[in-house]
Amino acid sequence: DDISGIELPWELVRAGRKTEIECFSERKVYSVRPRREALEKGARILGVRWVDTWKNGKVRSRLVCQDFNPEKGKKCDEMFAATPPLVVSRWLVSLAASQGVDGPGRNQLMALDFSKAFLYGDVQREIYIELPDEDGRKNAGNSVGLLSKSMYGLRDAPQVWQRVVESMLRERGFRKVACTQCTYYHPGMEMYVVAHVDDFLVLGARSDLDNLVKGLKQDGYECTHDLLGN
Predict the structure, then answer these.
(1) Residues with Cβ < 8 Å from 205, sequence gap 6 or more?
(2) Per-residue pLDDT tens for 119-137?
(3) What is the pTM (predicted TM-score) of this model?
């Protein structure tokens, strides 16, 4: 386990990594290209590594890009990604609680969690990676991967995901709240979303919450949700 240091059953590690590779294939995270293509362009080829952790009785494996050092003379502004202030989440909880037992009773809080969130966004730059050993195409030739989607470990992955979030919510009628970060409001349904990376706190009517989750899943987003305060 890369967090606790305990030894993990190898068969479960294999299963976790197989699941991750299948997800990369389904989402078309990278395409296999000849290594000479990257070398002829003078492109950096970034390494990858596995991060294996024990969670809920199974091994969760994540393939991570080793995007450590920027190119010489290049600024690292892409490492910054805003997060909402804690006071916004507290305000949303307070807004839900202030309804009281005999209040309108219309709105509920929902926690929404996206799985493998960083794999949804399109990369904004040309990035080559080494293929993991678990990708059978690695042994078929001197090949590397050309990223189409973002992945964990990229310096700008959080910013790419935030662009996905903004587009995802804007298409559903949400507007960004101007006075704070990562907070959205739907004027028609009176819904609020506070987006802390891949964990959302949502306030709205039960039917609207259900429709939001249903629509996200129909559009291919893999997410889980829990209604809070029931």
Answers:
(1) 106, 107, 108, 189, 190, 191
(2) 999 998 899 999 999 998 8
(3) 0.82
